[in-house]
Write a structure and sequence with these properties.
There is one protein chain. The protein is of the alpha+beta class and 342 residues long. It is built from 11 helices and 18 strands. A 5-stranded mixed beta sheet has the order 3-2-1-9-10, sandwiched between helices. Helix 2 packs across helix 3.
C-alpha cells in the first residue's frame, strides 16, 4: 500500500496502533518475552503478558517502557519491528509513523523514540505530545483561542496540559499513574495482610474494587497470594475501603500536580477552564470515583472522556490526516534521517 500512515501510542502498559483509513488495528500489552540465554524474542503482547510472574528462569519477561519512555531500547525495537511487520507486511513502501510521547520528556528521550521508530521500519517518523493527542481524540476542538485542560492518566505517567490555539500553553507530568496504583496495592497487602501478591493480582483488585472516592456501598473480593512468613499459598478478603486507603498517597500526588498547573494558568485561560471543566483521559481515569475526587479537590466540573482508554490513539489517527498544523506549531519533531516530516 502506497503512503501508509501509522500512529503508535507506545505506552508504559500497552501499545496501540492506528492505521489511517482503518482505525485502531492493534492493542496489546507493552510486554515482551525473550530467551534468557541468547536474548531472542519469543513472543510479545498478550501472550507475553500472560507469563508475567509465571515465567521460568530460561525466559525473561520484560516491560521495555518505563514511565512513558524507553528503558530497554533493544527489546522496544524488536517489539516495534514485530508490530510494524505484522501491519505492513504487504506494503511496498516504508510507512510514515507518528509516535506519542509524554509532554515533559528530554531531547535525548525524543531522539531515542525517533530512532526506535526509524529502526523498526518507518520511512519517516515524528512525535506528538500525549496530552495534545488525548485532547484531539476526546473530541475537543483545539484550534480556537479557548483554554481547555486535559488530565491524561496512563500506565506510567500522568500528564496535565492546558491547551489553546492548537498548542500546549502549560503542561506538567508526574511519574505516578496506573502502575503506581498497582504497586501501592501490593505494598498495602504485604504490610497489612502479611501476604505477597503479584502485579496481575494487584491490577485485578484495582479494576474490580479500586476507587478514588469512597463507594456508597462497600464491596469486597477474595484474593489468593503467598503468606509472607510461611511462604504457603493462602487466600484473604480485601475491601474497597482498604484499597481506597492504599491509593490515597498516589492520588494525592496527581491532585497536587493538577492544582499546581491550575495555579500557573493565566487568568483568561483559567476562566475558560472554569466554564468548560476538566477532561480526564487514559486508563487510569476509569478508576471508580476519579472524576468526583478531582471535583472535590478543585471545585471544577470534571468529566471522563468517552472511550478514555483509546483517546490518545484516536487523536494520533486524526493527526495523520492533517499533520501540517501540528508541524507548523512545532509538535511534530523531525527525524535525524530526514530534513522534513511527511
Amino acid at each position: 500500500m502506497f503512503g501508509m500512515k501509522i500512529g503508535i501510542d507506545l505506552g508504559t502498559t500497552s501499545v496501540q496502533i492506528y492505521v489511517s483509513g482503518k482505525g485502531i488495528v492493534l492493542s496489546e500489552p507493552s510486554v515482551a518475552a525473550c530467551n534468557a540465554v541468547d536474548g531472542s524474542l519469543i513472543c510479545v503482547g498478550e501472550h507475553a503478558y500472560e507469563m508475567v510472574g509465571k515465567n521460568p528462569d530460561s525466559i525473561r519477561v520484560i516491560k521495555p517502557m518505563r514511565n512513558g519512555v524507553i528503558s530497554d531500547f533493544g527489546v522496544t525495537l524488536r517489539m516495534l519491528e514485530y508490530y510494524v511487520e505484522k501491519i505492513c507486511r504487504h506494503a511496498i513502501f516504508k510507512p510514515r509513523v507518528i509516535v506519542c510521547m509524554p509532554s515533559t520528556i528530554t531531547n535525548l528521550e525524543r531522539h531515542t523514540l525517533l530512532d526506535a521508530a526509524i529502526a523498526a521500519g518507518a520511512g519517516k517518523a515524528g512525535l506528538i505530545e500525549e496530552p495534545l493527542a488525548a485532547a484531539i481524540g476526546a473530541g475537543i476542538d483545539i484550534s480556537h483561542p479557548y483554554g481547555t485542560i486535559v488530565v491524561d492518566i496512563g500506565g506510567g505517567t500522568t500528564d496535565v496540559a492546558v491547551i489553546t490555539m492548537g498548542s500546549i500553553a502549560i503542561s506538567s507530568s508526574i511519574k505516578v499513574a496506573g502502575n503506581t496504583f498497582d504497586d501501592a496495592i501490593i505494598r498495602y497487602v504485604r504490610y497489612s495482610k502479611g501476604v505477597l501478591i503479584g502485579e496481575l493480582t494487584a491490577e485485578q483488585i484495582k479494576k474490580s474494587i479500586g476507587c478514588a472516592y469512597l463507594r456508597e456501598e462497600e464491596v469486597a473480593m477474595t484474593v489468593k497470594g503467598k503468606d509472607y512468613v510461611s511462604g504457603m499459598p493462602c487466600s484473604f478478603e480485601i475491601t474497597s475501603a482498604e484499597v481506597y486507603s492504599a491509593l490515597r498517597e498516589p492520588l494525592d500526588r496527581i491532585c497536587s500536580l493538577l492544582t499546581s498547573v491550575l495555579e500557573f494558568t493565566p487568568p483568561e485561560l483559567a476562566s475558560d477552564i472554569a466554564t468548560e471543566g476538566i477532561v480526564l483521559t487514559g486508563g487510569g481515569s476509569l478508576l471508580y470515583g476519579m472524576d468526583r475526587m478531582i471535583y472535590n479537590r478543585t471545585g471544577i466540573h470534571t468529566q471522563v472522556a468517552e472511550d478514555a482508554v483509546n483517546c490518545v490513539a484516536k487523536g494520533i489517527g486524526k493527526v495523520l490526516g492533517g499533520v501540517q498544523l501540528l508541524e507548523d506549531e512545532g509538535y511534530i519533531f523531525k527525524t535525524r534521517a530526514t530534513d522534513s516530516v511527511f
